[in-house]
């Protein structure tokens, strides 16, 4: 059902997206550029902000550093894989 005021994925679409992303996230590794897929207001981070994985804390938890254009770090946060998406700057095998 479409709700004009709150356009979001349906619960089923949202669930399938998370399942698909969780499968894809297992390929994240040290020094990957990543973007947030959710907001973390407690860390002043919003969806789309770009960071770099600087430590692998667990199979599905990564420490991500967020820096400004001058290279100054403004956040260093441990984040679950399902909240990150890898960024690719060149061709990638499908």
Question: What is the compact description of this entry?
Answer:
The chain contains 1 helix and 5 strands. By secondary structure, it is an alpha+beta fold.
Description:
By secondary structure, the chain is of the alpha+beta class. It has one helix at about 10-25; strands at about 35, 50-60, 60-65, 75-80, 85. It has a 5-stranded antiparallel β-sheet with strand order 4-3-2-1-5. The chain is globular and about 35 Å long. The mean pLDDT is about 85.
- Counting DSSP H or I runs of 4 or more residues, the number of helices is 1
Low-confidence regions: none
Structural class by sheet pairing and helices: alpha+beta
For the termini, the CA-CA separation is 33 Å
User: What is the CA-based Rg, rounded?
Assistant: 15 Å
At CATH's second level, what is the architecture of the domain at 30-86?
A: Roll
Output the CATH homologous superfamily of the domain at 30-86.
SH3 Domains
How much of the sequence is in beta strands? Answer: 25-35%
Keywords for this structure?
94 residues; 33% strand; single chain; 5-stranded antiparallel β-sheet; SH3 type barrels; alpha+beta
Layout of strands and helices, then pairs:
Elements: H1 11-25, E1 33-36, E2 50-58, E3 61-67, E4 73-80, E5 84-86
Antiparallel strand pairs: 1-2, 1-5, 2-3, 3-4
């Amino acid at each position: 059902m479409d709700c004009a005021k709150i356009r979001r994925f349906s619960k089923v679409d949202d669930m399938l997206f998370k399942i698909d992303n969780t499968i894809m996230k297992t390929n994240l590794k040290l020094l990957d550029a990543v973007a947030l897929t959710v907001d973390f207001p407690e860390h002043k981070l919003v969806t789309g902000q770009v960071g770099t994985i600087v430590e692998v804390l667990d199979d599905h938890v990564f420490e991500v550093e967020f820096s400004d254009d001058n290279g100054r770090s403004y956040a260093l946060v441990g984040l679950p894989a399902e909240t990150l998406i890898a960024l690719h700057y060149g061709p990638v095998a499908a």
